[in-house]
Every structure is written in C-alpha cells, then in structure tokens.
Amino acid sequence: MKISARNVFDGTVEAVKPGAINSEVDIALPGGMKIVATVTNDSITELGLTAGKAVKALIKASSVLVLADGSGVKLSARNRLEGTISGLIEGPVSTEVAITLPNGYKVYATITHEASVALGLKPGLPATAVFKAPSVILGVSA
Amino acid sequence: MKISARNVFDGTVEAVKPGAINSEVDIALPGGMKIVATVTNDSITELGLTAGKAVKALIKASSVLVLADGSGVKLSARNRLEGTISGLIEGPVSTEVAITLPNGYKVYATITHEASVALGLKPGLPATAVFKAPSVILGVSA
Amino acid sequence: MKISARNVFDGTVEAVKPGAINSEVDIALPGGMKIVATVTNDSITELGLTAGKAVKALIKASSVLVLADGSGVKLSARNRLEGTISGLIEGPVSTEVAITLPNGYKVYATITHEASVALGLKPGLPATAVFKAPSVILGVSA
Fold first, then answer.
1. Percent of chain B topping pLDDT 90
2. Of the candidates C38, C58, B77, which has an alpha carbon nearest to the alpha carbon of residue A19?
3. What's A99's domain CATH number?
4. How much is the average pLDDT of B82-87?
5. Do A70 and A106 belong together in one domain?
6. Which end of chain C is more exposed for a tag (fewer CB within 10 A), N or C?
7. Do A16 and A55 lie in a common domain?
8. Does position C28 have pLDDT exceeding 90, yes or no?
9. What per-residue confidence (pLDDT) applies to B70?
10. Are residues A38 and A74 in the same domain?
11. Structural domain harbouring B39
C-alpha cells in the first residue's frame, strides 16, 4: 500500500461496538496508547474486524488538531496522543507539525500558519495530537 | 486551553438527541446563531453535556467550506453561518478565508487557492461558512 | 451555487439506509461509479432524498486521500474512485492532486507535500481518490 495519509499506525483491534449504521472500533497501539475509530458497519464486515485483528489506522494530517495546553478543558474528540514536537514545516497558509509519541510513533498535523504562530509551537515543546473518531480510516491486509 | 483549531466559539447546549453510538448536540451562539455537532455518546457522558451547559465548539479551518452564492441549492451540511469576508491569506495551494459574522465572531476556512480564485472571493463580499456536524469538537471547562 | 468545494459531482440517489441519527445514501455517478454519503436524518427529510432523486455530491479536497498502490490492503473508507493523475500543484506544505476518472470527472485532493514526494506522484500515473462517507455533503436544487 502506498497512500497519502501522513499517519499510518499499526495496531490491534480491542473491541467493536456496533450501532445502526456505524460501529466504534477501539484499537491498541504499541506502548499502551489507544485510538478510537468510527467506520460503517459495511466496513466491519468487509474487513472482518473483530477483537485481536491486526489493523492499520490511517489519519490525514489535515484531520489532526494540535493541543499545546489542555489544562482546564475536556474535549469531545476521542483521540488524544501526547508527545513532543519534533518538526515544523512552515508555509504561507499551512504549517505541518510532527509530534513524536513515547512509543516512537510520529503524528503529523496540518494546521494554519497563524495557529502555529499563536500557539508558539517549537520543537521540544510538549503537544497533544487531537482527532475525532470519524477521521480514522482502517485498513487490513488483503 | 491552547489549541490549533482556528474556530473556537463559546455557546450553550440547547438540546442533545441521542443515537446508538453518536448524539446530535444543538448549540446556541450569541446573536441567535446555531451550531449542530455530532459527538460520541461517550463524550456526552464524559463532558456532562445537557441543555443549558456552557460549551466551546471547535472547528478546524480545513473542515469549513465557503459558499459564495447559495441560490438554487439546498445542502445537507447542518451548519451555515452567514457573514462578510473580512480577510484572505493566499498561498500557492491553499487560501485562508476569514468571514465575520453579524455577532462579531470570525469563522476561518482553509480552501484551495484555485477555489478562491474561481469564486472571486474578496473582502467585503457576503459569504457563508458551511461545515458538517461531525466536524465539530466540543469542549467544556474541566 | 458558488461553493469552495473542489469536488462537485452530479449523480442520482440509488438508496437511502436510515439509522438512528444518520442515514447512508448511495449515489450513482455517470459511467457506473458510485459514492456513499453519510448525512443526518434531518437532511434526508429537508432535501427530500429518495431513490431516483438528482443530487450533487460535494467533497472538500482536504478530505480526499490519494492511494498510489492499493495492493495488499483493504480500507474502511467507502469511497474509492480510480483514475489517472492529471495535474499537480506543489506548495511548501501542501500539494493539490487532480485525478481524472474514466467518466471524465476530475477529483481533487489536497495532501501534504511530503506525502506527494514519498509516493512519487506524477501526471499519467494511476491513482485512486479515497474518502470516507461522512466527508460527503449532498446538495439538491432548491
């Protein structure tokens, strides 16, 4: 597979909670981290997603927010991966932020340049990658 | 809280409509405007979202479309905030558009540069910020 | 209608599968291609979406992933439109990719510049535009 998603994480399905149209899938990553994905029930069947299954979680960089200071707030976004800023690529409108997680995974976020400046993002500072469950695409070996 | 979302709006929960996995949350903004968010039921519980609760609605600029002329069409996107273009930052691929709402709030949208040119976007012109309910992240004071 | 979505496709509703809050809408495009959209039940009612109805499917370029080689993997994303790369606009952070489909439609994807380089995207190469059902906004004539 060669795909443009900047974030492709290997994990294992922990649980599948079915709804009428969509299901919530809990995924364990190395190092005790977790990701929650919402996918259609058709995908659950087609990909054979059940507990224990090896799975790839794909998240577009544009779906990821960067939380520089989460004190005093609780967010509805199910996915929050805490790490350290390890890279910044600045453009006139957009900035790509790389956050390295304790397990060595890198999460990439594309945010506006103005947000990057307003938050004072710099390599070495702590930051949390935040994304919603419906932003996650799941993949399995064919 | 310091977060990269360009759009962070203070509002009040008006109603919560539960589904099997997700709930729809109606939020009132100052000036009679409304936002609809879809979040997981787990978030409803965790954030204690009930009618009357103060809440922050976060929307990434990349989730927002700009409607320059909505005549002759009805869209499925639940959120449509009408205002006036108050700023444009142009890049080679992306353009950031700021739309000021009647209540003074600013909504930011990141769109393609080509779309910006094709629509003839200019400060002072009317425009509507359009985004889907699942694009909204909710936050409450911890 | 004048809207910033780079992808606006004319199609016909084939089926509507209702859930508690959202419904899945199957849409036929010219040339035998299909799109699946997830929209709220309120939108189904408001837009009068039923089988046979003419509909526009709108997808932001930032919601589209580019799959350069899909061998060995199955993805949960419901929408996969196969075509040929017909244009690339490179920026420092983002790249806009145009993929021309067999029916003549063009799909635009905004991806990170680094992903574009890593995948070796070039005009003339085959590529698949991938996007999730909740990324699709539907429109009907008013």
1. 94
2. C38
3. 2.40.50.100
4. 97
5. yes
6. C
7. yes
8. yes
9. 87
10. no
11. 7-59+133-139
- In chain A, what percentage of residues exceed pLDDT 90? 94
With CB atoms and an 8 Å threshold, state whether A92 touches C92: yes
How much is the pLDDT for A50?
A: 97
Both tokens assigned to C33: 């291609």
Which H or E element spans position A65? Answer: strand A65-69
B28-57 pLDDT, tens digit each: 999 999 999 999 999 999 999 999 999 999
Instruction: Please indicate whether, in this complex, the C-beta atoms of A47 and C74 are within 8 angstroms of each other.
Output: yes
Number of folded domains in chain C?
2
Find tokens 């063009």 and name the residue.
C106
Give which of C44, C75, C111 to mutate to test A binding, by max A Cβ within 10 Å: C75
Q: Which chains touch B (3 or more CB pairs under 8 A)?
A: A, C
Q: Is residue C2 part of a domain?
A: no
In angstroms, the CA A99 to CA A123 distance is 9
For residue B142, name the pLDDT band (cuts at 50, 70, 90).
confident
C60 at interface of A, judged by CB pairs closer than 8 A: no
Chain A: partners with 3+ C-beta pairs within 8 Å: B, C
If asked whether residues C69 and C13 sit together in one domain, one would say no
More confident call, A1 vs C82:
C82
Cβ atoms of C89 and B93 closer than 8 Å: yes
Same domain, B75 and B110: yes
